[in-house]
Amino acid sequence: MRLSSAVTFVSDLDRSVAFYCELLQVTCTIRSESAALLVGPDNYELYLRGKHAQPSRVLGSVGIQYLIWSADSMDELQRCEDVLRRESTHVRRERLDDYDVVEGRDPDHLAIMVVFPGPDESVRHSIIPRIYSW
Fold this sequence. Notes:
134 residues; Signal recognition particle alu RNA binding heterodimer, srp9/1; 2,3-Dihydroxybiphenyl 1,2-Dioxygenase, domain 1; 2 domains; 4-stranded mixed sheet; 8 strands; globular
């Protein structure tokens, strides 16, 4: 079993489609006036739904806090970090056990995490400390 799709509400659909297509190197396969379906090379899906700006859900409340993406190489992780740094000054990179984590923000200031190598290549021996910081 694996996660196949995620849905994210965004305030500016065009801006978010451009950002996620560049960051995740996905293709926008279906687009309507208020939603877009982005599909990755392994057929995972990210749905973006345009919504008027609303107060954000408080970080640390019940529900999904992060989707953590896996880069295929250290070069790809660096590319993702560069994309995130263009969008936000709040980018962190750290080494945990035998993998690297980059955290930044999307155009709506939602947290984005990218790791290398992914859990299929590097067994996790500890929980990412960031999830305890709320």
